[in-house]
Amino acid sequence: xxxxxxxxxxxxxxxxxxxxxxxxxxxxxxxxxxxxxxxxxxxxxxxxxxxxxxxxxxxxxxxxxxxxxxxxxxxxxxxxxxxxxxxxxxxxxxxxxxxxxxxxxxxxxxxxxxxxxxxxxxxxxxxxxxxxxxxxxxxxxxxxxxxxxxxxxxxxxxxxxxxxxxxxxxxxxx
Length: 174
Prior knowledge:
Layout: H1 3-26, H2 31-47, H3 51-70, H4 76-88, H5 93-119, H6 135-149, H7 156-168
Helix pairs in contact: 1-2, 1-7, 2-4, 3-4, 4-7, 5-6, 5-7
Transmembrane segments: 51-74, 152-172
Keywords: Membrane, Transmembrane, Transmembrane helix
Domain Prepilin type IV endopeptidase peptidase: 11-99
């Protein structure tokens, strides 16, 4: 893998990681992150000579996910982020199907983790025992406790980001 490809892939990884962190912390995936993923995906689609099919698949994905959003099955930020990540993946039915299956399965894992969290919602972290540099863990835990008590949303962006990364990396030209 060339240095430029490695750097570009690193930028994509940073965007995916930041999107997951934003979704965990504030349940919002900034539009600029979805736009950045699209911008970073375009060169890979150009290099693979499948930009137009990639855009067509991405638009199809947006249409399907918008339907899920209208049925209140998925959040609007997740629709935009999943759509953007679909451009990272080669536009073949197998690759896109595998990506979507991974998102669904990983999303189920995140949902299961949140069901367990709701059972543990009354537990507390010993904040004083954490070093100052790790106090953010306690803040995130308190926020998650608050969300769990109110049956808040699940950070599906984590599943999307992880699935995009696992599906994208093997397709990166070496």
